[in-house]
Amino acid sequence: MEKIDKIVKEVIKGMKDIYERNRNIDISVVWTRLIDNGLKGKSYVLYEKEKKLYVKVESSCCLSLLRMQKKRIMEKLKEYGFNYIDIKFLI
Length: 91
Hints:
Blueprint: H1 4-23, H2 27-34, E1 43-49, E2 52-57, H3 60-68, H4 70-79, E3 86-90
Parallel strand pairs: 2-3
Antiparallel strand pairs: 1-2
C-alpha cells in the first residue's frame, strides 16, 4: 500500500502537466511572450506548416534581430510545449 501523500502528489503533478500543456494552445498569444518588447508590434505569426513556424516581420532590422534570437526563441517554444523544427522569418 502507498501512502496517501505520495498518491496525492502524483495526481497533482499529472493535473499540472495537463494544465500546462493545454493552457497556451494558440501560438499567436504565446509569440508575444517570447520576443523582446521592442519587437512585439513589429512581428506576428502568419501560419504553421509541416512543423515550421512562419513569422511576418516589419523590416530587415527586425529580421536580423529575430534571427539572432532564434535559438533562444526555439528553446522557449519547447518550454511552452510547441515542437517546431524551424522558424521562418518573412518580410
